[in-house]
Amino acid sequence: MILLINICKEKLHYYEFVRPIEDVLKMNKIDFFTLNYNEILQGDLDKAEKIIICGTSLKDNGFIENIDNFRWIRDFSKPILGICGGMQIIGLIFSGKIKKKTEVGFFIEKFSNFLGLNGEKEVYHLHNNYISLPENFEQFSSSDISQAIKHKTKDIYGVLFHPEVRQKDLIIRFCELI
Amino acid sequence: MKVAVLFSGGKDSVYSAYLAKNVGHEISCLISIYSLNKESFMFHTPAIEITKRQAELMEIPFIIQKTKGEKEKELLDLEKAIKKAIVDFDIAGIVTGAIESVYQSSRIQKICQKLKIECFNPLWQKNQIELIEEIIKNKFEVIISGVFAYPFDKEWIGRKIDQKFLEEIIILNNKFKINPAGEGGEFESLVIDCPLFKKELNIELKTVSGEGNSWRAEFE
């Protein structure tokens, strides 16, 4: 069972940043449950086999103000995938720094063996910020800004782009990790 | 939050408005961009008189902005209209009916970013068959107002989006890769009635003009 974490401050943004990922899971018959980040209990974390932290809108940085709600990530031993804002959350928890850079639309990024992504791929960006490479993380993209990162020893992944737009398979591959 | 909806009068923009209202946003105005360029990548130019009547049926103020429809310049006209909505109606967000088009949505995102307001795309990446199913389920009465791709013909103009339409469009999707919600510009729609309207839009089909697989309705 996958836990999808909704970090959107605005209810209407659920449809834009969470529902598309739910649709990918439904299409592939992957069981999931969705919770807002401020309503997660220990029992939910125990129940989840893997976690996906979804992104949010350009203007929404509410999750940064409430970063303490994500302290559990440090001790969580099962796989996590953070998307855009979700990647920034993971970075903050592992001592990364939020940096400013606005990118909106399609970009070509080069990857090296990251959840099935290899070579140049078209990805969809929608962010005002990114995270500096956190402690104990490795980068799997070649641009100056980390687009795809993984913890050196844990199955904690982060992508700055939105895989639900052009790289849906990446989400499936994460869910199928053993 | 007070929001403005980018409004063409078709199913996607009206259904987005419906979703926005359902989660508690106040739709303070509708914005329609009237492009003189019928080939605009950015805007589906509606029949402006009809859009105005739809806005009246929703009892929501209506901003209309004309544009020559020259690439990128039309974005300045869109920005002008959104600025007007901010000044006149104190809106803090824009709602669009974008489903797949990164071309459209990334440009609108950038304008919202510049004007420091929220951007909402509640149909983003939505499965188009599910979208049609939801529109039918939520009692939207929608007709086809234009067709622009093979194998559509004149007979499709004025057809209702109902269960039968859905069944046929799924076949056309499998056979000819027609996007079930017309997101590739294969067809355009017009909302005649929905839960946001005080009463049904009363129109009559006047003429159908076009040729081959490209036909457009005019109403009165």
Report what the structure shows:
The complex is a heterodimer of chains A (178) and B (220). With 178 residues, chain A is of the alpha/beta class. Chain A has one domain (2-175): Class I glutamine amidotransferase (GATase) domain (Rossmann fold), CATH 3.40.50. Helix content of chain A is 25%, strand content 34%. Chain A has seven helices and nine strands. In chain A, the strands form two sheets. A seven-stranded mixed sheet of chain A has the order 2-1-3-4-9-8-7, with helices on both faces. By secondary structure, chain B is α/β, with parallel strands linked by helices. Chain B folds into two domains: 2-120, HUPs (Rossmann fold, 3-Layer(aba) Sandwich); 128-219, putative n-type atp pyrophosphatase, domain 2. Chain B is built from six helices and nine strands. In chain B, the strands form two sheets. Chain B has a five-stranded parallel sheet with strand order 3-2-1-4-5, with helices on both faces. In chain B, strands 7-6-9-8 form a four-stranded antiparallel sheet, with no helix packed on it. In chain B, helix 4 (102-114) links the parallel strand 4 and strand 5. The radius of gyration of chain B is 16 Å and the shape is globular. The chains are: A alpha/beta (178), B alpha/beta (220). Chain A binds chain B through residues 10-13, 15-16, 19-20, 23, 27, 57-60, 102, 104-106, 124, 126, 128, 164-165, and chain B through 1, 19-20, 23-25, 93, 95, 102, 106, 109-110, 112-113, 116-127.
